[in-house]
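TASK: fixed-backbone design
INPUT:
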């Protein structure tokens, strides 16, 4: 009898488990975006024709730079000349930033010429004020990536020389770096335009580069300096996990200032995830900081337009309330082009670069499903902002909120444009060859195999060809994405070569090339290999 009862209870329990499985997957709310996906039909191989077209565009830019501005930091295709960041001479801004793209695209002759320039001409003994973050992500990151891909020692030697010259930025009371460095004098300088405060994103976007350099050299002075910054930020961070865009180097305290995923905020969040990935998911604290920030972001910054339910990431701006003698946060429904890195980053955060691609929906937690949906929707929004007269996206998009005039007929707009007079332009209306949307399309393609992402990237590439290409060589920024006769700004940003064209090329490559489970891309698209964290870190 007892045995029978036990069997009966067992059956009841089994039924209960089957039907009321209390798993994280059974929670409602996030429907699979993959529909009836037939995984056997996914094809992650290269599209050779599209890759050739993008390589030809790169050649069009590179050959012109070589002809007109070889060795200069910046290139101006219209006047066919170059300029340097400081008057005492160049630091290889364009050449070094482009080295790994040359290597990846198989432009061997050009790579060798660039390599020889680095070996014989490049010097960092330049007297002048350089932005430490920009030099780190473009030049140090470029050298490290070139070294990894080619194994040519010259790149590592130059990287060490540069990092040694950058190190004084960390010698502050708190360890939070100053913004500028005189590379010749090895003297760090505070940002006098911003009361000596440092940008949070700039302080926290040096870590992949400095840590990889330590890994290569086994000299942990770089690692420890970069990691100290993260310790200070973690201790001083707001309980929300989001961070204001300014921080004070003297005491490591955040300054009451804007909170955003755009300028001065963006790559802080990007590097939280990537630091965790770089050391093969060993440093859990960065995953936790990232997850915390994403949860608060969903609550405080993710908003939708009334008309089409279009998702965007708003900003928070502090406003002083005189009556209460305290700051309050005002929501600003604006999104920098820079924010568009986040769509792909959210997808990367869910998969951590590991297959299957796309992920099996039912194996994801609710938080992962939330991040995935937001990532895909944000990419959709970013692509939608390219729905302009030129097919290119503006520097800044503003979104309609409930109660705004025209909110039922307009989702987003560019501020400062005069419809009657399209030749009048605004800061927000420019497209300066930025990469973030194609960066996200590349990640989304790799992590899903959804052809739509390739199609969208191709359309953007065609718009770049049509409206930014200079007949005689090179590409420029344009001043108004909504004017097909737009004026141009005579500058070809170095990130066009290092990021925009590289991500477009990789969007059409076989996904085994620089596989996402083996690499992290620094914020300037320089691929760095993942590695196991060294055990002997504090040995100096
Ligand atoms: C790049 O230099 C980097 O991606 C940086 O993190 C942000 N801005 C530019 C490109 O837009």
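OUTPUT:
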């Amino acid at each position: 009898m007892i045995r029978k009862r036990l069997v009966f209870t067992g059956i009841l329990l089994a039924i209960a488990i089957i039907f009321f499985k209390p798993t994280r997957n059974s929670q409602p709310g996030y429907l699979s975006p993959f529909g009836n996906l037939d995984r056997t039909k996914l094809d992650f191989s290269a599209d050779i024709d599209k890759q050739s077209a993008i390589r030809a565009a790169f050649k069009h830019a590179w050959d012109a730079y070589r002809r007109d501005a070889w060795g200069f930091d910046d290139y101006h295709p219209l006047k066919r000349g170059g300029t340097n960041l400081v008057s005492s001479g160049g630091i290889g801004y364009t050449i070094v930033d482009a080295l790994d793209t040359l290597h990846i695209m198989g432009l061997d002759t050009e790579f060798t010429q660039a390599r020889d320039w680095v070996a014989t001409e490049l010097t960092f003994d330049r007297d002048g004020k350089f932005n430490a973050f920009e030099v780190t992500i473009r030049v140090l990151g470029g050298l490290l990536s070139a070294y990894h891909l080619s194994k040519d020692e010259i790149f590592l030697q130059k990287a060490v020389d540069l990092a040694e010259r950058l190190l004084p930025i960390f010698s502050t009371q708190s360890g939070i770096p100053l913004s500028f460095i005189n590379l010749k004098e090895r003297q760090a300088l505070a940002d006098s335009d911003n009361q000596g405060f440092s940008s949070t994103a700039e302080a926290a976007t040096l870590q992949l580069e400095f840590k990889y350099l330590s890994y290569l050299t086994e000299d942990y002075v770089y690692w420890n300096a970069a990691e100290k910054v993260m310790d200070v930020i973690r201790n001083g961070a707001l309980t929300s996990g989001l961070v204001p865009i300014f921080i004070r180097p003297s005491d490591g305290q955040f300054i009451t200032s804007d909170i955003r995923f755009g300028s001065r905020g963006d790559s802080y969040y990007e590097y939280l995830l990537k630091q965790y990935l770089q050391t093969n998911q060993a440093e859990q604290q960065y995953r936790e900081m990232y997850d915390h920030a994403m949860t608060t972001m969903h609550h405080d910054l993710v908003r939708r337009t009334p008309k089409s339910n279009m998702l965007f990431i708003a900003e928070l701006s502090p406003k002083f309330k005189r009556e209460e003698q305290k700051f309050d946060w005002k929501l600003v429904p604006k999104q920098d082009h820079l924010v568009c890195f986040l769509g792909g980053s959210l997808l990367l955060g869910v998969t951590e670069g590991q297959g299957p691609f796309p992920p099996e929906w039912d194996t994801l937690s609710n938080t992962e499903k939330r991040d995935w949906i937001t990532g895909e929707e944000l990419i959709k929004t970013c692509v939608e902002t390219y729905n302009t007269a030129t097919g290119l996206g503006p520097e800044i998009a503003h979104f309609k909120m409930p109660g705004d005039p025209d909110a039922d007929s307009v989702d987003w707009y560019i501020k400062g444009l005069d419809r009657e007079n399209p030749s009048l332009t605004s800061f927000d209306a420019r497209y300066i060859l930025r990469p973030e949307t194609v960066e996200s399309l590349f990640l989304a393609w790799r992590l899903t195999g959804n052809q739509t992402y390739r199609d969208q990237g191709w359309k953007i590439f065609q718009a770049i060809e049509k409206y930014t290409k200079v007949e005689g060589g090179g590409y420029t920024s344009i001043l108004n994405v909504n004017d097909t006769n737009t004026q141009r700004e005579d500058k070809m940003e170095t990130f066009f070569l290092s990021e925009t064209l590289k991500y477009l090329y990789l969007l059409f490559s076989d996904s085994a090339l620089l596989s996402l489970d083996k690499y992290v891309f620094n914020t300037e698209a320089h691929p760095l290999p993942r590695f196991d964290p060294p055990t002997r870190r504090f040995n100096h």
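COMMENT: Confidence is low (pLDDT under 50) at residues 6-27.
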